[in-house]
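User: Please check token order:
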Amino acid sequence: MILRFILAIIGICFGVPCMAEMLDRPARAIEMPLPRYPESFKRDGRSGLATVVVRVDEKGISTVEQVMGSTTDFSFAAKAAVKNWKFTPAMRDRKPAVQRLEFIVIFDPKKGVEVLGPLFP
């Protein structure tokens, strides 16, 4: 996952379409509340991550398209948080456009929850 993140930073696209070069402006996060750590996992000291593909529509509304590499509880927590994420929409030809973004959500019982991304602005 770390290698994938590094490659994404330098512009190599994996997993979802890389549309940044076709956009006038990528979608921008306005509000991204962190997912809740599943209590049973936190209590048991379990860690994990979820890679989430998010669709941001022309109104800036986010929906989960796919969750990869996650247990069910971490998946559920990540999906629930994305419902509350707000974005300004991407722009293409001076019009709002749909964009897909990928985020990595890390659950660590000692450090809490961290969101990395978007990996494909």
Remarks:
- The chain has three helices and eight strands.
- The radius of gyration is 15 Å.
- The beta strands are 28-31, 48-56, 62-68, 86-88, 90-92, 95-97, 99-108, 112-116.
- Residues 3-17 have pLDDT under 50 and may be disordered.
